[in-house]
Each structure stands twice: as C-alpha cells, then as structure tokens.
C-alpha cells in the first residue's frame, strides 16, 4: 500500500474514532473493500499499527476495536490459513497488553475462531495465551459472556483440536467459570457444559469440575424480571450438568441425599428432579451404595409426606430408580421387597389414611415394566380381591374396584393377563365383575363396567356373552354416564370382535315400530356408538338414517343428533361422511323431510350438511355447487333455501358458484324480508361467506357489493317497517364482517358506513348491540374450517377504528356508540385494551352512569378484567369507580349487582394506603347488600365485605 493510501486510511480511522457509530460504518465499508480485493487485511493492520501502539490507551482500544469489527464483517470462509495465523499472532500479543483493551481483543478472537480456515494449532495458542494473561472472573459480565462464546464456538467447530490439549483445556474452562454469578452467563454455561463434560475425559479433574458447578445447587435466585430467566430455568439446566457423566455419581448422590432432608421445599424438589435425571447416567453401579437410604427416604415421603408436589416428584424418582436397577434382577427384587415390606397392613382398610399412599406406591412400582408389575400384583391383587368380597360398605367396594381397575390397566398396558401370573392363576376377575355388574348402585356399576372394558382382550366367549346381555339391561338406565359407558364398552368390543357385535345388534338392537319411544331412542344411541367402526358403520348407518324420517318427533330428533355426533367425530377408522353421502344418500333424504323453519331439527340438519360437504374433494364440492346453486337462483321455499345455503357455505374458495342477479335478489329478500329470524341470520352469513371467498378481481365482487349496499342504503332511508330496517342493518353488519376478515383494502370505508348507522334514530341502538358480531369468538360460519379468508389482527382493526370515532358521537347517539364499544371489548385482547386504557376508562365511567342495563353489565364485566391488571390508572380514578360500584351493588337486576360487587372485591388488590380511605363507606354499604334477597348476590357481597374488612388488619391485606 502506498504511503498516500496509508495516510488516507489512517485519516478515515482517526475521523471514525470520534464516534462509535461512524467507526462501525467505516469498518463495514473497509470489510467490503477487502472482499473486493482493493486492499489487503495485512495493510489495514499495518496502517493501524501506530494507533494500536499509541501511548493513549483510548486510541489503542479504538484501533483494536477497528480490526475486530472489520473481522466480524468478513465472511467466515474469506481469510486463508496464513492470514488467520497472522491475526491469531496479533491477538495473542494484544492479550498481553493493558486490561482496558482486553474486551475488544476478545471480540476479535470470537470473530477469528468462527473462521473456516483456522489452523489446527491456533485454538491452543489462543487459549494458552488467554489463560496466562487474562483472569476471566475479573472481567465485566458482557466480557465474560464473550469468553464463554469463544469456548462454545471452539467446542462446536474445533473439538478435536481442543482434545489435543488434554487436561489443560479442561483446567482453562474450570478456572474461567469458577465463581460466575450472572444468570445469563450461567444459562449459557449450563447449556454447553454437559456436552463438554461428555466429550472430554475429566480424569483427575472430575471432582474439581463437579465442585465448580455444584456450588449453585440448589439454585437460589430471585429474578428481577429484566433477564427473562427464571429460577426453574436455571435449576433445570444445572441438573443436566450435575449428572452429565457417570463419574459424578460419587459426588452427586451425597448432595442429593443431603438436600432431600432439607426443610426447604424447593431444595427437595430440585434434588428429586436431579435424582430422576441422574439415575439414567449413573446406572446401577452409581446407585447401589446409596440405594437403601434412597428407598427408605422415598418410601417415607410417599407414605407420610404432606406436600402433594413433593410426593408426586418422589413417585417419579422411585419409578426412575426401579427402571434403572431392573437390569439387575436380584437387586431390583430385593429393593422392591424392602420398599413394600410395611405396605400390606395398610391395604386391609380402605378408610385408613395410608391406604391411598400404599396403592400409589405399588402403582408406581407396577408401571415400570412387566417384571415389577408382577411383583406389585402379587401383593395388591389378593388383598383387594379378598377385601372386596368381604366388605359390605358400598364406599369400600367402590374404592377396591377402582384400585383393581388401576392395576388391570397397568397389566394390560404391559400386554399380559393377570391370570397368566402363576401366583394369581386362581383369580377370576372377569367373573367377579360380571357377578356384581347389576348391583343396584350406579357408581359401582360404572366402575365395574370400566374394569370389564379394560379386560376386553382377556374375556373369554362366555364372559363376553354375559357382558353383552348385562349391558342390554343397563342401557335402559336413566343415568347418562352409565349409558355412555355402555356405549364406550360396546365400541371397544366392536373393534376387537366385530362379528359378535353385528350379531348382537341384529338380535337385540333392531328397531321395531311397535316398541316404546324410550326403547327405540336407547337402541339408536347404541347403533350410533358402534357406527364409529367401519364394519359396524356399514351395518347400522342405513338404519339410523331411515329413522330421521320417523313420524315420531323424538326418534327423528335422536337419529339426527346421533348422525351429527358421528360426522363431527374426528378420529374414526373410516370416512363416515363419504359413506353417508354416497351409500345412504343422506343429503337427498334429509332435504326431503317435511319440516318448517321453526322446527328444532333444522339446526341439526344444517350442521350435518356443513360437516359432510366440508370434507369433500374439490371435484365433489363442484358437483354439489352445480346441482344446488340453481335452487337458490329460482323460486325455492325458505327451508329448501337454507338447506342449500348450508351445503354451499363450506365450499372451497375456487368453487364456481355460477353467481347471477337472481341469486342476489333472492338472497337479499331472504335476509331482509323473511319472518323467521334464523332464516335471516343464515342468509346474512351466506352472503358474507360469498363475499369473503370471492376473488376481488372477479366481475361479480364489485357488482355484488354495489347491489347490496344500494339496497341497504335505500331501505334504511325509507319508511319501511322497523323490523325490516333491523334486518337490513344486520345484513350490513355481516357484509362488513366479510370485508374485514377478508382483509379488503377498503375496510375503513365499510367500517365508517357501519359506524354511521349508530346515529340512525330507529336502528342505531340495535346496531350497537350487534356490533360485537364483527369480532365474536363464537363464530361458526366465517371461519377457516369453511375455507374463509381470516385476516390477522382484524379484531384490533375494528376496535381501533371505533376508538378513533369517540369524538364524533354526542347526545342521543353517544349511548349507541358506547354500547357498540363496550360489547366489542369482550372480544379484544387485554394487551390491546391496555394500550388505549386512558381513552377507555373515561368511556367506561360514562357507561356506568347511563340507564342501560346491558351496557352497564358489559362495562362492569370488562372493568373486572381490567382491574385485575392493577394498572395505575385505576388507582388514579378510584374516586370515580368506588362510589359507582357501591351504587350499582343495589341495582335492580341481579347480574349487575354481582358484577359491581366483583369489581369492589378486585379493588382490594390495590395498595392499602390508596383504598383505606374508602373502607368505612364500603363496609357500611355492603352491610345492606349482604341481606340481599338473592343468594348469589349475598355470596358475592360477603366475599367483598370480608376482603374489605381485612384491609390493613393484622394478617390481612398488607400495605404495598
């Protein structure tokens, strides 16, 4: 490089040194120049030479910073081995320099070790120089983080080179991390140390390594909230370090045993978690020496411990221990015998306090594997069977049956029959269950039936035949739970023995017109239950479909309910929707039913249609459209129209609906002029679905929007009947929702038009109550499942638009605006509400002052949720809220009184110094409310008054 060029670069650096941002920009530019070949890295380092050796420490630091920054902006594969060797030598020399330049040197080393062509000896050179000249824990927290990143980068990219250093590298790591306290740095270390300890043979340094990390156990850390790191995060990562290698067993197990006896709950939980992780690494050899002491402590905690969380963690740890030692059969059996040696006496009486813990202990042992399960069964089964047979108390019998069922399931999960255990060959559990299945106690019957279903693989033909007969009797029960269990049981047996259940259906569950309605309904429910398997579905679905046309309304309704449940079930082994459509001709048959728009069965049929068509292929959906759209374009009855609409709602976006003007006209008339509210609503939803799915470049999209908007505008401005105007306003709401969810560019215009209707003197209030439709979470039509477009954040857009309109409403229209806003708040995420809280609070206060019961109630519900955030604005406005809540606690309707009392209760979470001023007034007012004529109001009042009474009291709500 010429002296002129050198001077130019030097001047650039000197200018850049004045400001960090400028220096970074200049370094990026120079890195690009190096990549383009205009300048060499050697030349840049040479240019910076006088600056790097300057007597001014700050100038030297800037010079090092410049080189490190340039390196960080170069591609990892750009520099060759010679260039990198030069850089390594450069940084090794700098590590010997003044302590203030070390952070910038380390930044450069981090960039260097990421380079692809780094020589094999470079990591060792860097680390040895670092260890000789820099003490990690003397550095600031961010600098230590950089050091750890250097270690991690070398571990990931240069592990073989590090291994060549032998124990020296291990010693460097131990010395560097010893004494680290920063949680962020510890999280980084704990994430990489397990791999480090597994890759490097620790040898004589194993104890030193363990001591360096074990000093953090158990983790004692109270997060400030800024790091984003919790105590549990650190504890989980630390546990993985403490049990990373088998050599740690001799150091780790004594610590675990010591902390298990701690009086601090978190220490016990951390120790149990560490034990669960560690046993798999330490193995039998690592556990054997401490096994008796561990088993003794765990048994004591499981049997007599009072803390449920610790007991559950102990059970988990015991299962892990048994799983590991099960590889040594003799040791495993002797350990289990030791654990359960005192359990038997506790199982003789189900009412003993130690009965449930004893069962839990045996259950824990049994779940590990088949061998331990057999060992547990040999204890529990004879005792439970004997006690069940001799007990007369139904409560006791139920407890013992539940216990038996637990172990029957565990044995079934392990794939064996209890009777196949030689020591238990004498048992006949299925027969015992069958003998008591018809016991006149529904709870016991339910438990027995569940147990028999668990044994489905192991019941012989005689047992199964007896069970089928008894289920037939139980089906007549008035208990919904018991009948549901019967259905579940038959379905389980149908999966294993389909031929038997087909025969059973033909013999006992054939539908006969002469039977009582109740009997036929019970049979229909059974048919629907077993129809979830392919073999049975083909047999029974035609029968269920035929009953939809029954003259008996209850039977017809039951058949439709059964079909609806079936097509809504996701996890069955065949395509029930396809079978019903192709083989049972269900759409034509249901469409032919003679029902009116007010018939209770209509909703069931419409939902069945949607669920069936939704799962069709594109081609099949197009055939549906071709066949049924002409019905809507012609002169169809209202029932036929809504049938057709619900076949078309779930069609894919690209299906051609052959839209025409007659279709627009007919849909408009149905939506506005039908006398049936459900017909109007369904039609409005369908119009919204069409607009939502239609391509905006389609010739019909603008045409359809213009047509409906013009008709709506004319209707609202005419002298039409008020009900017609309300229906028209509803149609406008649904069209607006279609546009919003679609993400159309003219959303604001449509929202403006809808918001303007709030000023309408006849339907403004009605639109206010309907406004929540725009964001309702209970939507079932404009949803992704029906292939609709759902724009992200559309709810936020609606809310923010309405908030901006605050100043445009005065006088009579203000109440309509507030109604719309408050109704909308229930659907808006709390985070968004908090962003606009200052505007919202004044509006909510105003809402509480108006004489509109629905508005007041909705405002109180929203306020109750917002008060839970303990936002400072509610402290500032307390003088506005407390008096209003007290007044509303005696409001005329019960739900408002309860909501106001809940808000008063929530205010007790605010600082005592703030709310203590209002304590006497609140207690005085609530003394009247606790005598309210409604029980639920009295309950809410007592809760509120108790909380307020405790404000400032010893042991009560503390000053914050």
UniProtKB/TrEMBL annotation:
GO terms for biological process: DNA repair; iron-sulfur cluster assembly; protein maturation. Its main location: cytoplasm. Residues 45-303 form the MMS19 N-terminal domain. GO terms for cellular component: cytosolic [4Fe-4S] assembly targeting complex; nucleus; spindle. Residues 524-905 form the MMS19 C-terminal domain. Belongs to the MET18/MMS19 family. This is MMS19 nucleotide excision repair protein. It comes from Ceratina calcarata.
